[in-house]
Design goal:
heterodimer; A: 0% strand; elongated; B: Rossmann fold; six-stranded mixed β-sheet; four-stranded antiparallel β-sheet; 42% helix; ATP hydrolysis activity (chain B); Phospholipid/cholesterol/gamma-HCH transport system ATP-binding protein (chain B)
Chain lengths: 248, 257
C-alpha cells in the first residue's frame, strides 16, 4: 500500500514536471513571475538565513573548541573546522532544511489556495499551461537564489564562529584567520553549490507538487503544506547523502 | 454550437452523469438547471474539458474535444471565457490587471492598447473607473461583473457561467442575467449557464436542459415551462407553494383569455 502510494506520487510528480517544462506562452510574463519569486524566496528569506547561520557558526566553533580542550591539536584548527563543516554541510543542508519549512510551506499553501479558489481552473480555461506558469518560475527562482543564500550563510557562519571564539578570548584573531586560510580545498565550495542547487530544486518542486494537487478544504491544504515540508526535508537529507557519496 | 453525445462520468463508484446528450446553440443563453447533486457542475466541467468523460464525446462544431491533445485543447480554450461561481479573480492583482491578464499572456498588444481594451470591457459591464481597486475592495455583484469582463476580454466564441447569480440579491441577479444575455446576443456567443435561479430560468431561458440524477429530465425554453406537464420540471421549478399558486393563476388566466 505504501509502495503503491509512493509510486503513484512519484509518477504524478514526474508528469507534473514534464508538463512544467514547456515553451512559455509569453516570455515576459514568465520573466516577471520569476523575478517576483526571486524577491519572495531570496530577499524574503535573508533575515532567517542570517539568523540561523550566525548561530550555526557559533555553536560549531564553541563545541569544537571544547572538544579540543587541552589536546595537542593546534587551536587554529577551530577556524579550519568551522570553515569546512560550514561549507560542506551546515550552510547548504541546514539552510535548505529551514527554507523547506519557510519557502516550501508557503509555496504549497499559495498554489493550493489557488487550486481551491479555482484560480488554476480559470487559468487553464484561458489556455495557460498552469504547470509551467505556476511552477517553473518558482523552480528557476529558487535554483538561482538559494545558492546565493547558502553562500551568504556559509560566510555568516564563519563570522559567527569568529564571534563565539575570538571575542571571549578562546583563541586569537590571528589563529582563527590562520585556520580559515589553512588546507583550503576549492572543490568543497563546488560541492556546496551543487548541494544548494539540488536542494533548491527539490524543495520547490516537491512543495509545488503538493500544492498543485491539493483537494478538499482548509484541513487538506494544511496537510498538503505539512507533507510538502516533511517530504522535502527527507529528500534533502537523502540527496545530501547521495551527493556526499558521489562527490567526496 | 456545442454538442454532447452520450456523456457519462463516474468518480469511483459514484456514477454522476448517465448518458447526457444535448445541444447548446450560438446566440442565445443555454441553461443547465437541476437540484444540487444533479450533475450540473460536472457537465459544465466536461464541456470545458476540465474533466475527461468516462464515456461519450463533446463536440465544438465538428471537433471532438477529447480527441485533441493538450496543446489543441488549449487552443480551443483560447476561444472560451468562463465566469466562475466564486469569480476566481486573482487576489494579488487589481481589477484592471485581472482583466488584462489573458491579453498579457496571449497577445502582443501594447500596454496602451491593452488598457484601452480593459476600459472597454469594464464599460461593457458598467463598471468604469474601478481599474485600480483590488477584488476584495469591491462588492460580490461587482466582482461578478469583473469576472464577466475578464471572460469577455479576448472576445470568446463560447462563454460558460457557473452559478452566476449565487450569493447575489434578486435585483443584481437580474442585472447579471441581462448582461450575460445581452453579450450573448450581441456577439453571437454560445453561452452555457449553470444555474438553479428561477428568475434566470423564466427570464433568459431560451434553451433549458433539466438534469436529474445525472440524466436529462427535460429540455425546452422558458415559454414551455409554464405549461409543461413534466413532473420533474414541475417539482423543481414550482417547488414552493407560492410559485405553484402563481403558476395555477397564470394558467387559469390563459385558459380564461
Amino acid at each position: 500500500m505504501l509502495i503503491d502510494t509512493l509510486l503513484y506520487n512519484f509518477g504524478q510528480y514526474i508528469l507534473l514536471l514534464k508538463s512544467a517544462i514547456a515553451k512559455p506562452e509569453r516570455f515576459s510574463m514568465y520573466y516577471k513571475e520569476t523575478v517576483r519569486q526571486m524577491d519572495a524566496i531570496g530577499v524574503g528569506s535573508v533575515f532567517i538565513v542570517l539568523l540561523i547561520s550566525v548561530f550555526i557558526g557559533m555553536v560549531t566553533a564553541v563545541q569544537f573548541a571544547d572538544q579540543l580542550g587541552d589536546s595537542f591539536i593546534p587551536s587554529y584548527y577551530i577556524g579550519y573546522i568551522v570553515r569546512d563543516i560550514t561549507i560542506i554541510e551546515m550552510a547548504p543542508t541546514i539552510t535548505c532544511l529551514v527554507l523547506a519549512g519557510k519557502v516550501g510551506s508557503n509555496l504549497a499553501a499559495e498554489i493550493g489556495g489557488m487550486r481551491q479558489k479555482e484560480h488554476i481552473d480559470a487559468m487553464e480555461i484561458m489556455g495557460v499551461n498552469t504547470a509551467a506558469y505556476l511552477i517553473m518560475p518558482k523552480i528557476i527562482a529558487a535554483v538561482l537564489v538559494i545558492p546565493l543564500l547558502v553562500a551568504i550563510s556559509a560566510f555568516v557562519s564563519i563570522i559567527g564562529g569568529y564571534l563565539a571564539t575570538v571575542l571571549p578570548g578562546s583563541i586569537s584573531h590571528t589563529e582563527y584567520v590562520l585556520g580559515l586560510r589553512s588546507f583550503f580545498v576549492p572543490r568543497y565550495v563546488f560541492i556546496m553549490f551543487v548541494k544548494a542547487g539540488v536542494f533548491a530544486f527539490l524543495l520547490t518542486s516537491v512543495s509545488c507538487y503538493f500544492g498543485y494537487y491539493v483537494k478538499g478544504g482548509s484541513i487538506e491544504l494544511g496537510e498538503a503544506s505539512t507533507s510538502a515540508v516533511v517530504v522535502s526535508n527527507v529528500l534533502i537529507l537523502l540527496f545530501d547523502f547521495i551527493i556526499a557519496l558521489l562527490l567526496t | 454550437m456545442i454538442r454532447t453525445e452520450n456523456l457519462h462520468k463516474s468518480f469511483g463508484d459514484n456514477h454522476v452523469l448517465k448518458g447526457v446528450s444535448a445541444e447548446f446553440h450560438a446566440g442565445k443563453p443555454n441553461l443547465i438547471i437541476g437540484s444540487s447533486g444533479a450533475g450540473k457542475t460536472v457537465l459544465l466541467k466536461l464541456l470545458i474539458g476540465l474533466f475527461r468523460p468516462s464515456e461519450g464525446a463533446v463536440f465544438y462544431g465538428d471537433t471532438n474535444l477529447f480527441s485533441l491533445d493538450d496543446k489543441e485543447i488549449r487552443a480551443i480554450r483560447m476561444k472560451v471565457g468562463m465566469l466562475f461561481q466564486g469569480n476566481a479573480l486573482f487576489d494579488s492583482m487589481t481589477v484592471g490587471e485581472n482583466i488584462r491578464f489573458p491579453m498579457d499572456m496571449f497577445t502582443r498588444l501594447s500596454l496602451k492598447d491593452k488598457n484601452r481594451r480593459v476600459d472597454e470591457c469594464l464599460e461593457m459591464v458598467n463598471m468604469e473607473g474601478i481599474n485600480d481597486r483590488y477584488p476584495s475592495e469591491v462588492s460580490g455583484g461587482m466582482q461578478k461583473r469583473v469576472g464577466i469582463a475578464r471572460a469577455m476580454v479576448l472576445e470568446p466564441k463560447y462563454l460558460f457561467c457557473d452559478e452566476p447569480n449565487s450569493g447575489l440579491d434578486p435585483q443584481t441577479s437580474i442585472l447579471i442575467d441581462e448582461l450575460i444575455c445581452d453579450l450573448t446576443n450581441r456577439n453571437n456567443i454560445t453561452t452555457v449557464i449553470n444555474t438553479h435561479d428561477m428568475n434566470s430560468v423564466m427570464g433568459i431561458g431560451d434553451n433549458i436542459l433539466l438534469l436529474k440524477n445525472g440524466k436529462v429530465a427535460w429540455t425546452g425554453d422558458k415559454s414551455q415551462v409554464l405549461e409543461s406537464d413534466n413532473k420533474v420540471l414541475e417539482d423543481f421549478i414550482f417547488a414552493s407553494p407560492f410559485l405553484r399558486r402563481l403558476r395555477e393563476d397564470a394558467l387559469k388566466q390563459r385558459q380564461g383569455g
